[in-house]
Amino acid sequence: MPVTIREMKIAIASGKGGTGKTMVSANLFYSLQNAGMKVSLVDCDAEEPNAAEFISGSSAGVSLVSQKLPVIDTEKCTFCGKCFEYCNYHAIVFLPPANFIQVVSDLCHDCGACVYACEYDAITEINKELGKVNTMQVNGQCRLIEGRVNVGVYSSVPVVKKAIQSLNCEDIAIYDSPPGISCPFIATVVRADYVVLVTEPTPFGLNDLKLSVATLEQLDKPYGVIVNKAGLGNREVYEWIAQKNIPLLMEIPFDKEIARIYSEGRLLAEVADGYQERFLVLSEKIKQACHE
Amino acid sequence: MKVAITSTGDNTDAKIDSRFGRCSYFVVYDTESGSTEFIPNPNLESIEGAGPASVQMVASKGVSKVVSGEFGSKVKSIFDQLKIQLIVVNDPSKKISDIIELLNQK
Amino acid sequence: MNEIAVLSGKGGTGKTCLSAAFATLCSNVVVADCDVDAANLYLILQPENDTEAVFVSGQKAVINRETCTDCGVCISYCRFDAISNINGTVEILETSCDGCMLCMRVCPENAITMAISDKSRWYSGTFRNGNMVHARLEPGEENSGKLVSVVRKAARELAKKTGAETIIIDGPPGTGCPAISSLTGAKKTIIVAEPTASGFHDMKRIIELAGNFGIKTYVVINKYDLNRDVTNQIADWCRENHLPVAGNIAFDPEMVEAMLQCKSIIELNPASDLSREIITIWNKIEKDEQTTDY
Ligand code: SF4
Ligand code: SF4
Asked: Does one domain contain both A47 and A83?
């Protein structure tokens, strides 16, 4: 089936983890790749990047993501206290009687306010590593780009941004979004043209779906829903999306065989009959929705 | 010499608070005058930076020793640089008055 | 006080259903739902809230359109890409703003002020087996870690007041700030793993984090029968790293059935094999190093 899509960015997201968003991302990627598209998958779930378990490629470069960390030169510092006053994150310990001033690196949000504040040129910035972006070449024109934040770093947003920036003129980019509805999720979906929400037909799934939908409404992003593990649970999710006029893009049944394929890091589109076609149909639906 | 002790309450019958950055009160005890000052921890609510902000607070009181149940690594390194001595009391049943007594014996 | 944090690294491993099961095994417990991004536990435990409180998650910059001249100075200073010029008008994207206040300070027209973000809430109330604290973070608001701390503090106070021995913390997925806040100061942590490649991988990351805090860690392998090979790999890895595997739980659609009925599996079918396994696990973990009255 010829698919002609130009420069489309699709975020695959879910309110909670474990609903199968990585499975959808990886299968969609695989199916489009097989259809001859120039497609890249960006794993934006930088706290728990998992896409590489489904897609293998050869390493094509690692770039480090860092933030700036201010360092205060006590020789130049006059202990005027302006930086301390400007820092909104309590990241500067300031004790003039002891001639002591220091930035606590774990608390610094890299906002730059202290550098702006200092009139005595006493603050310079060094780089502090936050994580990395790994790029893997999957075949001639398809890549997997994986953001990976170091354990214990307070925000994965800089890593997400850098991972997405590593794209270049793909036909289609798929973002495997971080779970939840906070900043890393938003940093991902604001950079997408369309958002696919993967949910499961259970009370938890519905509750999380509602939260995600509220967030996307606020951001004014078009979106649709995939119900994974269909057959488990009840019909409430279906009733709710029908009532809200949210498109149901696809259903993937609950099946122990599918669970096993997933657990082994294999792709449905590769090993189960008909799935590659189904994922291509999905991409067609998204394309139409984008152009509406 | 002034000593800061982390406390669970606002009097000397209260027990020591084992968490430095998130203790309920700081007691500043002056070994010369024998006076005590109870200061509610202003950083209790802040998630980020309670430790360093508490260092800031006790150091600005001019103490030379701090008594608590435990100190995080961030906090330790700042105290080290400030040359403030840390005393770990690993017994949460100790009262502030017990600790003051111990300090006076030294 | 025995604070036990239930975490998983990866989402969807069944952490919340297990937390619910553990909670309903206790006679006087405090439950802290620290998955504030996507709180679900209240759906099962159905607490009756007696307190609702505002959580101020931070502040966000707001532009006064009357005085802003669209000069764009703030755009160049903002390191969070929160300010942009949209068709000639300078606008702040609320969801990207980190609240650092730098734009407010650099604005030559004093056109920027800070507004507090106060749409998030936390609640405390009672349920069948004790008390519960949970929260709702407004989409895109930061500081879920701070909200977790607020929830945990409220839980501790409730435990003190009610004499509850145990606090069960249902933690968030991931290894970021809210996960860290859920772990700090906890006595024990239960890591709910699932036998998938990604479940195994994420489990290692969260265990690394718990190790940093020196918290006693137990592993429970949920839905172990979906892939016995990976289950064995997880068990081997745990043995090598001297981590106790407290038990294996089989996949059972009854778990979902319990959820549909707003019950824990223990309440739905206490005599089932599944429930008996969970009871064994809980007794093992809770009684380790300390005796309680359950
Ligand atoms: S960069 Fe911002 S957060 Fe970091 S120390 Fe300076 S003012 Fe504080
Ligand atoms: S603003 Fe500059 S001179 Fe003033 S206290 Fe900070 S570093 Fe020192």
From this structure: no
How crowded is the C-beta side of A53, counted as CA atoms within 13 Å? 17
Model pTM score: 0.81
**Residue having the nearest C-alpha atom to atom 2 of ligand 2:** A118
Closest CA in chain C for residue B48? C146
Mutate which of B44, B80, B81, B83 to disrupt the A interface (most A C-beta within 10 Å)? B81
A217 in the same domain as A109: no
Based on the domain organization, do A21 and A101 belong to the same domain? Answer: no
CATH classification of the domain holding C210 = 3.40.50.300
CA-nearest of A189, A166, A111, A211 to C83 is: A111
Number of domains in chain A: 2
Residue B23, token pair as written in the block: 């203790």
A136 beta partners: A59, A144
CB A56 within 8 A of CB A30: no
Instruction: State the ipTM, two decimals.
Output: 0.81
Residue A290 burial (CB count, 10 A): 14
Taking the C-alpha atoms of residue A179 and residue B68, their distance in angstroms, rounded to an integer, is 39
Give Cα separations from B88 to A44, B14, B51, B94, C227 (angstroms). Answer: 43, 17, 16, 12, 48
Domain span including residue A102: 74-121
Do C159 and C46 lie in one domain? The reply is: yes
Cα torsion C171, C175, C180, C181: sign: negative
Question: How distant, in Å, are the alpha carbons of A292, C38, C132, C157, C261 from that of C43?
Answer: 37, 11, 12, 23, 10
Tell how far CA B95 is from the center of its chain: 13
| Amino acid, single-letter form, for residue B24 | S
Euclidean distance between CA atoms C212 and C206, whole angstroms: 10
Q: What is the pLDDT along chain C (294 residues), one digit of tens a residue?
A: 789 999 988 878 888 999 999 999 998 999 999 998 888 899 999 999 999 999 887 889 999 999 999 999 999 999 988 999 999 999 998 878 889 999 999 999 999 999 988 888 999 999 999 999 999 888 767 667 788 888 998 999 999 999 998 999 999 887 777 888 888 878 899 999 999 888 898 899 889 888 877 789 999 999 998 889 999 999 999 999 999 999 999 988 888 889 889 899 999 999 999 999 999 999 989 877 643 332
Tell me which range, A145-149, A270-274, C54-58, is most confidently predicted by mean pLDDT. A145-149
Q: What is the CATH number of the domain that holds A210?
A: 3.40.50.300
d(CA B60, CA B46): 19
Range of the domain at B36: 2-105
A26 CB-near residues (< 8 Å, 6+ apart):
A41, A51, A54, A55, A176, A267
> Scanning the structure block, which residue is given the tokens 């309110």?
A15
Indicate the residue type of A21: K
Closest chain B CA to residue C148: B47
Q: Distance between CA A266 and CA A27 in Å, rounded?
A: 9
Alpha carbons B95 and B14: distance in angstroms, whole number: 6
Are A285 and A247 within 8 A, CB to CB? yes
Q: How are beta strands C89-92 and C83-86 bridged, if at all?
A: antiparallel
Q: Which domain holds residue C90?
A: 58-117
Are C145 and B46 within 8 A, CB to CB? no
Question: Does the distance separating the beta carbons of B47 and C146 come in below 8 Å?
Answer: yes
